[in-house]
Specification:
The complex is a heterodimer of chains A (294) and B (169).
Chain A lengths: L1 H12 L3 E11 L2 E7 L8 E2 L15 H6 L1 E2 L2 E2 L1 E6 L1 H12 L8 E6 L19 H4 L11 E3 L11 H11 L2 H13 L6 H5 L24 H15 L8 H5 L6 H16 L27
Parallel strand pairs in A: 1-6, 6-7, 7-8
Antiparallel strand pairs in A: 1-2, 1-3, 4-5
Helix pairs in contact in A: 5-10, 6-8, 8-10
Chain B lengths: L9 E6 L3 H10 L8 E6 L7 H9 L4 E6 L10 H18 L7 E5 L5 H18 L25 H12 L1
Parallel strand pairs in B: 1-2, 1-3, 3-4
Classes of the chains: A alpha/beta (294), B alpha/beta (169).
Chain lengths: 294, 169
């Protein structure tokens, strides 16, 4: 931990970075995101199993970008990121939302995080994304901390649930999702917390003409959740923040995971893994599968 | 209306340059095809947003057809290539949330394929006729309701009473 604080302090004191986005401890099993511009405040920085937030969401915010502009110079932004958050950063770089040169990635050898604040960190309370995680060491970083430790073992319940839904007939599936989406209160927490939902104006905010009904009735909820899932298909890096943020416990990451599986099946593409490849839906290949079309 | 006489409503999103012109050719060639498809002309298959399709289902369409130029024939060079990737995803998503794959169909029809246009329309209409009406989406509740308990302020009652007592004193 001291290394992290020392490194952040050096970065800020040298004037290389304008701010460090990191985590601070608020209680034993809870952390909060913090944006530090003063070297004296770096002592608050921590990294542990309760650093749940995906801080990549802040990188595209206009107010954070403003922090970097000093005396006509654009300073770097340092971010502490788990290896899975690095995927989100990579996806943002791929989509030209941020520049790799302006981001200083401080990352860690990760052995998983808890599913939510307040839970003990063990196999039963492991976040579902960590169960199938293959990147315990980040793919891209400027500074790496932390020892390599073993991830607790747990069974993958999400994939079993997807299989279960797929085995239902269509009308049952429709009723299932109708019921799940009906719980939605349109708080848009899923949108706010998603690093890839960076549109200045979301399609659901555009109401003339009104494509997605803004009321929180069944029809409006259904349209919003389907379109949200579609806009993330082939892009979602699987950080699972939408699931954690949803106050109505809608299994959002279930649909996201299903669409990621499709991206892998159809195009052998996994989002946010390589800076060299173009994005999936932003590019095309003339030899793509044509079976769908008559 | 009994099921025998039921006619499906199908929204067809067609591209201006190929499929719509193909439909024109089908008409001028006096080809016969079912009248269930309502053609909606758009400039390119790449400009069809999935919300259009969702809206069509929401407004009671039993099926949707999306049709554009053959690959490499796009008037805008790459519009249909982009569309193709998008539809692959959307088709899978619709299937996963419970809308059968047959209700949403795709085709490439060029301006010279009047016969193919008539055939595709016939096939889509027959497919959807066999599947029956799709009312689940249209029937969805579109009114915002909250189920309040009969006595919403049960918990607060003692508090109110306490206060009212004080006021009288």
């Amino acid at each position: 931990m001291n290394e992290l604080i020392k490194h952040a302090r050096e970065l800020l004191e040298s004037g290389e970075v304008a701010a460090v986005i990191g985590y601070r401890q608020v209680s034993a099993k809870r952390t909060k995101p913090v944006i530090i511009t003063d070297p004296e405040e770096t002592s608050a920085l921590v990294f542990n199993e309760y650093c749940l937030n995906n801080l990549a969401v802040y990188l595209t915010k206009a107010r954070i970008k403003l922090l970097c502009k000093k005396n006509d110079k654009v300073l770097k932004l340092a971010i502490t990121a788990k290896p899975c958050d690095v995927h989100s950063i990579v996806a943002l770089i791929q989509e030209n939302q941020i520049d790799r040169d302006t981001i200083h990635i401080i990352s860690f050898n990760c052995h998983g995080v808890a599913k939510d604040f307040g839970f003990d960190f063990n196999g039963d309370n492991l976040a579902s994304k960590c169960i199938t995680c293959e990147t315990h060491k980040p793919l891209y970083y400027d500074k790496l901390f932390g020892e390599v430790m073993e991830t607790p073992q747990a069974s993958d319940t999400a994939i079993a649930r997807i299989k279960e839904i797929e085995s239902m007939p269509h009308n049952e599936r429709f009723e299932f999702f109708k019921g799940e989406f009906d719980k939605c209160i349109k708080c848009y927490a899923c949108r706010a917390v998603c690093p890839l939902c960076y549109c200045q104006r979301c399609i659901t905010d555009k109401t003339i003409p009104c494509w997605i009904e803004t009321s929180s009735h069944q029809r409006g909820n259904f349209a919003w959740n389907v379109i949200r899932a579609f806009h993330l298909s082939g892009r979602c890096t699987g950080c699972g923040e939408c699931d954690r943020a949803c106050p109505a416990d809608i299994p959002l990451s279930l649909i996201n995971r299903k669409m990621s599986m499709e991206a892998k099946n159809l195009f052998s593409f996994v989002s946010g893994r390589s800076l060299e490849t173009p994005t999936l839906v932003g590019s095309y290949n003339e030899k793509d599968n044509d079976e769908l079309f008559m | 209306m009994d099921k025998q006489n039921w006619e499906p409503k199908i929204a067809a999103f067609v591209c201006n340059w190929c499929t719509y012109t193909g439909a024109d050719l089908a008409g001028t060639s006096r080809l016969k095809y079912p009248a269930n498809c309502k053609l909606i002309r758009v400039m390119c298959s790449g400009s069809i947003d999935p919300v259009f399709i969702l809206k069509a289902f929401e407004r009671g369409a039993d099926g949707v057809l999306v049709s554009g130029c053959h690959p490499n024939d796009c008037h805008y060079n790459a519009g249909n290539f982009h569309a193709r990737r998008r539809w692959d995803f959307f088709h899978e998503l619709m299937d996963f949330i419970g809308i059968e794959k047959g209700r949403l169909q795709f085709s490439w029809i060029s301006a010279s394929e009047g016969k193919k246009f008539a055939d595709v329309i016939t096939k889509v209409t027959e497919d959807i006729k066999a599947m029956g009406p799709f009312t689940a989406y249209k029937k969805m509740n579109s009114e915002f309701t909250i189920d309040f308990p009969e006595e919403p302020f049960e918990i607060l009652k003692p508090v109110f009473q306490e206060n009212s007592d004080k006021e009288t004193v």
